[in-house]
Design a protein that fits this description.
The structure is a homodimer of 584-residue chains. Chain A is built from 21 helices and 26 strands. Chain A has 584 residues and is of the alpha/beta class. Chain A folds into three domains: 313 residues, Rossmann fold; 133 residues, Domain 2, N(10)-formyltetrahydrofolate synthetase (2-Layer Sandwich); 82 residues, Formyltetrahydrofolate synthetase, domain 3 (Roll), CATH 3.10.410.10. In chain A, the strands form seven sheets. In chain A, strands 1, 2, 3, 4, 5, 6, 14, 15, 16, 17, 18 and 19 form a twelve-stranded mixed β-sheet that branches. In chain A, strands 7-12-13 form a three-stranded antiparallel β-sheet, with helices on one face. In chain A, strand 14 and strand 15 form a beta hairpin. Chain A is globular and about 80 Å long. The interface between A and B is large, with 83 and 82 residues.
């Protein structure tokens, strides 16, 4: 089989203007970026307001190995499968960070014959939204450090008299807005800024203080982009972003720094979703890509809204397993204005479930154990508990569940048949084998048919997992007990104090976002299958006031990845014809 | 008169596809970015190779005040004026950094009725080239720090055995590749990276070392983008970029780090110039924007090449006064493959020349002294020496010189008439009053006519100022004595050692790029008019091996600006209709 980039390059693409035309978008709302990408103006949605919404298919997965279960392949594949059976379907997916593209993971455009194309454009720059976030975020940082510098150097009173501004009296020790860069760059995790230039007599560079960079997709602005329902809503949310606290412990926001408007100006184009196509000419909106731990891990509400007006089915992907992305979709994105799902496609694989036997070590960058690839019913039987959890988890939200078994070349029909039966036995409303990677839309027709059958047969009775009006502690405990099947949440002294402060400041009625590992249903990556009885420790609680949620850290969450000693970029180059080679 | 952004927004724009069509570009070579910007494939130039080149008009200026003399207004205005008199003309200008846009200077799209539109697009993001540079540059930094980290932690031998790579043995104390960000952010000037995460037992973040960020336009990659003649040439130059030295003092390049290919992949689209339009529907290529002190301050060779095939006249702008941008255009850009100018338009103003009397203090952000605005012949007579220098300077390169007097509303006909006469007396081949700001193309017809008259009458006999085969010291001395009219160059002990090292490594036959103030012909901003007898101190000499020049620092050059206490971003916002307000 050809490589992903070869398949992508060999594809015969339709001009994006033609694709937009087919969708019924008006020319004035379509802003091409090159021949195969276009930003779609949010005004297009207003023109379509009278049309009914299509059905929302949420693609989630069992607890993934570090290689992923193939959610993007299935999101694209199911869309193509729905198209094949004569339905109008559009995918809505996240834009990947360039960090992993040059690190170890490679691109995120799906794979094989279920890809978004051109994959080079998808994986690099796209239409510049992540660059806009980097720029808007770091303008906030520059504004913050500048204000501290001028106020501290001059003295608050003199500063106020000269500038006519009110002194913000920012406590340099309580700056919470780290800078961002869209690379894997461990050297920037922990730094000191504002140091004196070597040889200078005075320090004109600010107040030296500890600082660090996160990868851009971890920026709160990314979470806001994904949750905002309009440009004006995004602007308002930027204003609420807390960047620091003053000497009285009061929050200092981007609005206080008078930088929220400029940040919104920088992101005026980024709020428009990008239209691309899959290998079979179907439409795909690519928009926003927040982390699925410290943020909610789902693509944007505005792209969904647009797609729902244009299609019978919108197929969207939620990051990691159903305990992560799906949970956050339901409890955070729906609350912010996202459409509740009509059906869930739960992606799993034989090898993935075998890993939940606990018999194997799976490490990114190393080859899989043959025991996961070859027939191994005992391992499958041991690991099936993980599927059971995720089927039940989908049901908790009142949603119909179709299991999509992502087939790999070595998979045997025996084991696939066993798993199909087992899925139904465990309560799935439908199940089918999915072969999008090898066969594109045709390989996903069975799943598409199951999705339609289940949608016609069952109405969802969507419900949230927890009540937003409850205390933060209650909500966290609900998440652990009702959400993960653990025994209880254990909140550290530090986190207790933080919760008390949040409640005192009126931030207690926000949804909670658990930042835990994606490699287990619990907080502990070593607990495979369907662990029970575990207590989830919450070490720290932080606020994303602009995005509108409180997030709880269960352990240390890596917001700035590093690069290995043989990173992906070493192979990437351009050939004589100017084509990119070895991007995967 | 309306504000710049109001004029820009009220303009009736032509779709960029129509503009490209009018220029004779084939659809396949035009990649629209929205409705009013398009990247033009370099392949377009190959299709036009049989066509003769148009004439190259280089726009320079007298020694500017911090407010600038109106070079961009005149570059756009002259292009519109040439169009008005029936000639086919295209502007080639630089893309501005977003730093100054949010700082104090505002945008750089020209002004009044001589603007490139839409000015919001021009000033923010454009087609993402600067973002691509930031990303490619910082990938290089991440690659560098990662390599140091892995080699140092593991030991060179163990590293080689495990990875199969040759250890680069980088000296952490001799890393010369600073990171970049496209903001004015003084807190990042001097920092420490690779510090241990608070609370961690070991340092997983690298080797702590001093580091700093420059503004992106100061990146060597920006200079390379402007000087490369093709994608392949850019790729090759990236490979030569020196990022550090090893423990033997040998250079470690981006090629050694195996990151140059990925950097080129990131900048594969950035090498394509962006086509925009002026307020009268004429074409403008916007591409690259290197600093005019540590780099050569001119827009790209590839944009010029394309424009020369499409137009009778290409009007391009060189940064700062003729001692800076024009000198570097002639000695660096022409040597790298740029076309030598056919004629020079030397922009000056009454107020600018009055400032060269030395009687006034001009400070950015403060109002001009009335003595410069109101009639003041004595000041004008004192300051005229600066014009004399620049006319003679243009002549040194064998180029015809047309003086364009940029008229301001308060300027009197008496003084303008006096200056017109004086310009001719001082040796200008032509002179005219330019009113592009107030009247667009019509206001620049007189200058356009003078340019054509002079071009028809005089053939340039272009010559370089210095011989590239000479030693670095000789070239620097030539620049000071023949170029600036100073008495000699004075090279510090440090710079002498650096020159010796460059010569030993074979980098002595490159052009030299003087990084000095733009506010005086000399190195001292206080020396107004036409100073003589001054000695130019060279403190330090550095190498841009990829861009292909050696640059000499006369003093401290600011490669990372700061923000004042009332920066421009405080006023910028979006209005109810989603338009950007208060961008200037």
């Amino acid at each position: 089989m050809k490589s992903d980039i070869e398949i992508s390059r060999d594809a015969k693409l339709m001009p994006v203007t033609e694709l937009a035309d087919q969708l019924g978008l008006q020319t004035e709302h379509v802003e091409p970026y090159g021949h195969y990408k276009a930003k779609i103006s949010l005004a297009a949605g207003k023109d379509l307001a009278h049309k009914p919404d299509g059905r929302m298919v949420l693609v989630t997965a069992t607890t993934p190995t570090p290689f992923g279960e193939g959610k993007t392949v299935n999101t694209i594949g199911i869309t193509m499968g729905l198209n094949k059976i004569g339905r109008n379907a559009i995918s809505c997916i996240r834009q990947p960070s360039m960090g992993p593209v040059f690190g170890i993971k490679g691109g995120a455009a799906g794979g094989g014959y279920a890809q978004v194309v051109p994959m080079e454009d998808f994986n690099l720059h796209l239409t510049g939204d992540i660059h806009a976030i980097t720029s808007a975020h770091n303008l906030g940082s520059a504004a913050l450090d500048t204000r501290v510098f001028h106020e501290e150097r001059e003295g608050y009173e003199a500063f106020e008299q000269r500038t006519g501004l009110k002194a913000l009296r920012i406590d340099p020790a309580r700056i919470v807005w780290r800078r961002v860069v869209d690379h894997n760059d461990r050297a920037l995790r922990q730094i000191t800024v504002g140091q004196k230039t070597c040889g200078a007599s005075t320090n004109e560079n600010g107040i030296p203080r500890p600082e660090g960079f996160d990868i851009t997709v971890a920026s709160e602005l990314m979470a806001i982009l994904a949750l905002a329902t309009s440009l004006q809503d995004m602007r308002a949310r930027f204003g609420k972003v807390i960047m620091a606290y003053n000497h009285d412990g009061e929050p200092v926001t981007a609005e206080d720094l008078q930088v929220a408007g400029a940040m919104a100006a920088i992101m005026k184009e980024a709020i428009k979703p990008t239209l691309m196509q899959n290998l079979e000419g179907g439409a795909c909106f690519v928009h926003a890509g927040p982390f699925a731990n410290i943020a909610h891990g789902n693509s944007s509400i505005v792209a969904d809204q647009l797609a729902l007006k244009l299609a019978d089915y919108v197929v969207t992907e939620a990051g990691f397993g159903s305990d992560m992305g799906l949970e956050k979709y339901c409890n955070i994105k729906v609350r912010a204005g996202g459409k509740s799902p009509d059906v869930v496609a739960l992606v799993c694989s034989l090898r993935g479930l075998k890993s939940h036997s606990g018999d194997f070590q799976v490490v990114a960058g190393r080859k899989l154990d043959r025991g996961m690839i070859d027939p191994n019913l005992p391992a499958l039987e041991k690991g099936i508990s993980n599927l059971r959890f995720h089927i039940n988890n989908v049901k908790k939200y009142g949603l119909p569940c179709v299991v999509a078994i992502n087939r790999f070349p070595e998979d045997t029909l025996d084991e696939l048949g066993w798993l199909l039966e087992k899925a139904k036995e465990l309560g799935a409303d439908g199940a089918a084998i999915s072969e999008g990677f090898a066969h594109g839309g045709e390989g996903c027709m069975a799943v598409a048919n199951e999705i339609e059958r289940v949608c016609n047969a069952q109405k969802p009775y969507f419900q949230y997992l927890y009540n937003c009006e409850d205390t933060i502690t209650t909500k966290l405990n609900d998440l652990v007990v009702k959400g993960y099947g653990g025994s209880k949440v254990v909140i550290s002294e530090q986190a207790k104090a933080q919760i008390a402060e949040l409640e005192a400041k009126g931030y207690d009625h926000l949804p909670v976002c658990m930042a835990k590992t994606q490699l287990s249903i619990s907080h502990d990556p070593n607990l495979k299958g369907e662990p029970t009885g575990f207590e989830v420790p919450v070490r720290e609680v932080r606020l994303s006031a602009g995005a509108g949620f409180v997030y709880a850290l269960c352990g240390s969450v890596m917001t700035m990845p590093g690069l290995g000693s043989l990173p992906g970029y070493m192979q990437i180059d351009i050939d004589e014809d100017g084509n990119i080679i070895n991007l995967s």
